[in-house]
Specification:
The protein is largely without helices or strands. Strand 1 and strand 2 form a beta hairpin. It is rod-shaped, with a radius of gyration of 29 Å. It starts with a strand and ends in a 9-residue tail after the last strand.
Length: about 400
């Protein structure tokens, strides 16, 4: 049926599909309005114009909307599961509660689309565009959406467990409390993203860029953060137990009250990082049994930090603030501690063989049982034996 609205003729189409074949074929029909609740299951809607169409509650499962124009359409609670949506444009559409399970989303556009509580589980595609989309509380479990544009996307409370978003751009995105256990975020851009209290346990973030991102209170246990850019990141009170942070750039990072027990920080850059007591009243971080071999912590703040039993061989702590830090049983062999502030620090039973402590502040430090050798360098006039340290026997000499 056609209705003349001024000079524009609008084709109104209402279809109840009873066709036994694989597709309903509408060809190049120009559809500007459709009735809510329409059933177009298995329909062939390639290249169809559905801009501003009203398709709330409609069933379009298994349909083919390749290259269709669906801008500003109403699709709340519609069912497009298993549909082919490659190159389709859903910009500014209202898709709240829509079902998009197992859809094909190659180069599909969802720019500024409203998609809260949408179900995209197991959807697949490359180069899809979700810029500015609202995906609050959406289900993206198991999706494989690589190389996507997702800047400023809102994924607050979304479920992305086991998803693959590798090589995508989520800069300035909102991922607060998002569930991302086991997600693949390798090489992803998350610059200035807000990810407070997100669950990223066992996530793969290798090579990702999280510069200035906020992951306060995030769960990152056993996550792979190797080779990441974490400059000026907020990881306050984050759980990073057994995380892999090898070669990570954490320059000026804030890790106050973070739990890094057993974490691997070898060769990481923590220059001027904040790991001690917070000015906001937070606790110092926990680095118990962590590995910081060859890491750069020059000028870092580790006031009151728990570094007990950590492996710090060849690390650079020059001019670091380590007042009242717990370094009991830590391996500090061949570590650069020149100019470090270690007043009140616990260095009991620490391995200081080959360490350089020239110009360090050791006032009130505990050195009972700490081991050193002739290559250990002390502040001028400091007597390690009087402080309770023990010189290692020849066979105990530390090796580089």
């Amino acid at each position: 049926m056609a209705i003349d609205r001024g000079t524009q003729r609008t084709k109104i189409i209402r279809i109840k599909s009873k066709h036994s074949g694989p597709w309903w074929k509408l060809g190049a029909a120009r559809v500007l309005f459709a009735v809510p609740g329409t059933t177009l299951e298995n329909a062939d809607l390639r290249n169809t114009k559905l801009a501003s169409a009203s398709l709330n509650y409609s069933i379009l499962a298994n349909c083919n909307l390749q290259n269709a124009n669906v801008q500003a359409a109403e699709l709340t609670d519609a069912d497009l599961s298993c549909a082919t949506l490659d190159q389709a444009d859903f910009t500014d559409s209202d898709m709240r509660g829509i079902k998009l399970q197992k859809t094909s989303l190659n180069e599909t556009k969802f720019i500024e689309a409203k998609m809260s509580e949408a179900d995209l589980s197991d959807a697949k595609g490359v180069l899809a565009d979700f810029t500015g989309a609202d995906l609050v509380a959406a289900n993206l479990t198991g999706v494989r959406l690589t190389e996507c544009r997702m800047r400023s996307v809102n994924l607050t409370d979304a479920n992305l467990n086991r998803a693959d978003l590798s090589d995508s751009d989520l800069s300035k995105g909102q991922l607060i409390r998002a569930m991302m256990s086991g997600i693949d975020l390798s090489r992803v851009k998350l610059v200035e993203a807000v990810m407070e209290a997100a669950d990223l346990r066992n996530a793969n973030l290798q090579g990702a860029d999280l510069t200035k991102a906020d992951l306060s209170d995030a769960l990152l246990e056993s996550a792979d953060l190797s080779d990441t850019k974490l400059e000026k990141i907020e990881l306050i009170n984050a759980d990073l137990r057994n995380a892999d942070l090898r070669n990570a750039d954490m320059n000026h990072a804030r890790l106050n009250a973070a739990n890094l027990t057993g974490a691997n920080l070898s060769k990481a850059n923590l220059h001027k990082a904040h790991l001690g007591y917070s000015n906001r009243g937070g606790d110092a971080c926990n680095l118990t049994e962590s590995n910081m071999c060859d890491a750069d912590l020059s000028q870092a703040n580790l006031t009151g930090a728990n570094i007990q039993g950590a492996i710090l061989s060849r690390a650079n702590f020059s001019n670091a603030v380590m007042t009242a830090a717990n370094l009991n049983r830590a391996n500090l062999s061949h570590v650069n501690l020149t100019g470090a502030k270690l007043s009140g620090a616990d260095l009991s039973e620490a391995d200081l063989r080959g360490a350089d402590l020239r110009e360090a502040d050791l006032e009130g430090a505990f050195l009972s049982g700490a081991r050193f050798d002739e290559s250990t360098e002390w502040p001028e006039g400091f007597d390690p034996i009087d402080a309770g340290a023990e010189e290692a026997m020849f066979e105990e000499k530390a090796t580089m």
